[in-house]
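thoughts on my protein:
***
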Amino acid sequence: MRNLDMTSLRSFVAVADHGGVTKAAGMLNFTQSAVSMQLKRLEEMLGITLLDRTSRRVALTAAGEQLLGYARRIIEMNDEAMTRLTSKSYEGEIVLGVPHDIVYPVVPRVLQQFAQEFPRMKVQLVSAYTFSLKEQFDRGEVDIILTTEAEPDARAEVLDERPLCWIGAPGGTAWRHRPLRYASGRNCLFRPLTIRAMEEGGIDWENAVDTYSDRTVEATVSADLAISTMIQGTEPAQLAQVEHGGELPALGMQKICMYRQDRGAREVSKRVAEMLRQSFTNTAPRPAPREVPQAIRA
């Protein structure tokens, strides 16, 4: 396999963009003879004529027009790779804060993509409750945070909005028992609104755990000893949404939000924000199909 020479491609693109060898040579800081030599080398390598030299202004042949698109992309990819792998702008660390309950499934995929695109940068993942992450953000300790909030402040970019759901063991019956055993961490943002919903719905309930650990909550719920609440689509594989048929109160909607600030890695944090934005859009749960009444089915 033969390889196209980058200098020859740059000379060719410069001539095409500037309409002649003279201007192209000035832009590239080459002599005119050096640019002409690069063009001739490229034509000989490909075995085709790239420029129509019969008129005063250099024009591309049909083959030259076809090569021009490839040449631009090759140069762009070359320059991007050189910048990412050698520029000091792509060295260092970015700090990403994410609440425990929305780490999966999006964040591992984003971290993997980040490592591939920015191999010389490190990412530090901070996992905590929303209120703690916002405090760290306000102190300038993190570049990007994700939050789960019903009413975010003006700085937030809302990535998605999903219902808060009752979560239990797959096929479990804990949700039917009274008093209803409820499990959540002490600092869980959903705890006060869930308790309020149960009390306003007249549901007798009791605490199933006293913990700060999400692992403890998940273990208790997966054993069908209690139920909890999570944003739709974020429950781990060992848990499932409770199909309660309206016997448990609705819990309203929660917004998944992103906050970003410049701590010296502007371009990198901007790209990470794009990854997160795209990933949450692509993983939003699709609404279940509506049941068509028997009377109007074909």
The chain has a mean pLDDT of 89. The domain at 91-283 is CATH 3.40.190.290 (D-Maltodextrin-Binding Protein; domain 2). The chain has nine helices and eleven strands.
